[in-house]
Task: structure prediction
Amino acid sequence: MADQSEETVDLLIVGGGINGAGIARDAAGRGLSVLLVEQEDLASHTSSASTKLIHGGLRYLEYGEFRLVREALIERERLLAMAPHIIWPLSFVLPQNRSPRPAWMVRLGLFLYDHLGGRVRLPGTRTIRLDRSPLGAGLSARTGKAFVYSDCWVEDSRLVVLNALDAAERGARIETRTRLIEARREGSGWIATIEGESGTRTVRARILVNASGPWVADVIGRAHGTRRDRGVRLVKGSHIVVPRLYDGEHAFMLQNDDRRIVFAIPYEGRFTLVGTTDQPWTEAPAKASISAGETAYLLDTINRYFAVKTGEADIAWSYAGIRPLYDDHAADASAVTRDYVLDLDTGPAGEDHAPMLNIFGGKITTYRKLAEHALSELAPFLRQASGDWTAGAALPGGDMADADFERFLRELQAERPALPPVLLRRLARAYGTRVRALLGGARTVADLGPDLGGGLYGAEVDYLVRVEWARMAEDILFRRSKLGLHVPEGTAERLTAHLAAA
Result:
């Protein structure tokens, strides 16, 4: 039976991916009342299916996306300082011996890449000889030269959770497993019906923010009386995870004859992450999976470049996500703009209708700037809100002295010498300074509760349920962490039983 009680908020945000969480954080920090609803778990689709890079997007220069690249490069430096536990520098080797682009063109692009965004923390591009540098080890052909440039790695799903956590600590309410049924304008506000684990209820909101990613068109359809003249183009990107292809902590940017690029990135210690593809998605939004053609494409790429040959049977894991790009009518899915578009719908001209902001596109790197732009678009309707604030504000766990993760880890290990260093490093990487709240008074492994397998203990699970909205084994094993790649058989079942007993 429906609950007829109503609540009122400034912003009702639909979608718990990186854009929704980022907007919730920004808005809550401005003193606005915020309710974010997510139909599944936080980062359950596109935002946990990225290539896990904070980067400017070197290849976007080829399509003339200079504004996007500049903004992303500036954000790269900011995010590195805001969350040094889940973001860190990564070197990329770009071999030229199989490149369809002349070396001068690549070097020019890298020169722009080094200088467009006011690079401070990361080293500039350099040139190496593949046969003389250890960075060429593992390649099947170590002839010619390669360029080495820098970007950053990010734990993408944790970035979403930390933004949601910061939003909640600033007063926002985050409700997972809750979906928008419908919304309609009433005067200068919205009346929305939402359905969650406790039933159906009505919410009043001054503004409706549609940050639902691949479901952006579906949510527009659930909001009565809204414009339908914006198009979304869904593009699937897929990745495979294979046993390590080479030694070292550097990544490779591999160029194919079709001019597309594929990254090979060190992943979870024992693996290499390979991706991504660009395939049009013409079906309704849903949980995506890699196709046979995409698998073959990625395997063919790494087998052309690396000495170790990899087959389909070697794939440890694969994942795919659907990118909700703004439809700019580009013929090639790889060329569709990755820039974001903010579509503000205020209803029929001349009428005092409530605003709805629809988010198209975007990159995980520019989520903070997108949120800032979103609040700027909404400023005329939120005159009581304070100004921009997120550029220098650390995310939960990121408040380390000089953003120095290794120094923080040494301090943590000195505080808890009886806990295994490998466990402390993993926990520090995931939770940063919040690891102390997770550990509480624990000084030994025995203090961490039941051992569920592979270094996952009850204390961490209980923290994730209590603080980070985790509800199911998959939330913990593949979004709050990537322990699903490491834990022994039976861990998922033990974890499910532990969650049920909590």
In short: The chain has a mean pLDDT of 93.
